[in-house]
Amino acid sequence: MHARWLWLALIGVLGMLPAEAHHSWARYDGEHIVTLKGVITEIEWASPHVVMRFAVTNEQAERAEWTVEMDPPTLLNRYGLRHDSLAAGMPVTITGVGARSGAPMLRAVTIEVEDGTVYRVSSRV
Q1: Interatomic CA distance for residues 38 and 108, integer angstroms
Q2: How would residue 116 be classed by pLDDT, with cut points 50, 70 and 90?
Q3: 8 Å CB contact between 80 and 97
Q4: Is 61 left (phi over 0), alpha (psi -120 to 50) or beta?
């Protein structure tokens, strides 16, 4: 009987691991806030996370493509951000945390659009 409960507990814990790993912020450097200005090139409004690509041009006129991860669509809707609030070609200012690896990836916390509206895009605000 004891072994049966042990197996059930082990299966339950193992079943939780993929979800925990998927929603981990471990790949991002939460100690350093980054703010970037650029133009949206693509947005994928789908679960489990809304993913956006946007182009940033530096002072040397070099263009870099960044991947931006946000909360799921259901949470973004609760924050007031709708699927038609952002579109390719829109200039935006994104604040969040960058990848620990130095890759051009950002876990966004807020997005500001051209009219000054600031949208929360993370539950960790």
Answers
A1: 13
A2: very high
A3: no
A4: left
Alpha-carbon dihedral 35, 92, 72, 22, rounded to 10 degrees: -40
Provide the token pair at 112. Answer: 């500001």
d(CA 58, CA 28): 22
The structural domains of the chain, with segments of one domain joined by +, span: 27-120
pLDDT digit string, tens, across residues 7-41: 444 444 444 444 444 456 678 888 889 999 999 99
Domain 27-120 has CATH 2.40.50.140: yes
Residue 85 neighbours by CB under 8 Å, 6+ apart: 113, 119
pTM score: 0.77
Closest to 96 in 3D by CA, of 58, 124, 61: 124
**Residue 96 tokens, joined:** 């969040």
If one counts every other C-beta atom within 10 angstroms of the C-beta of residue 92, the result is 19
Residues 49-64 have a mean pLDDT of 94
What's the average model confidence in pLDDT over 32-60?
Answer: 94
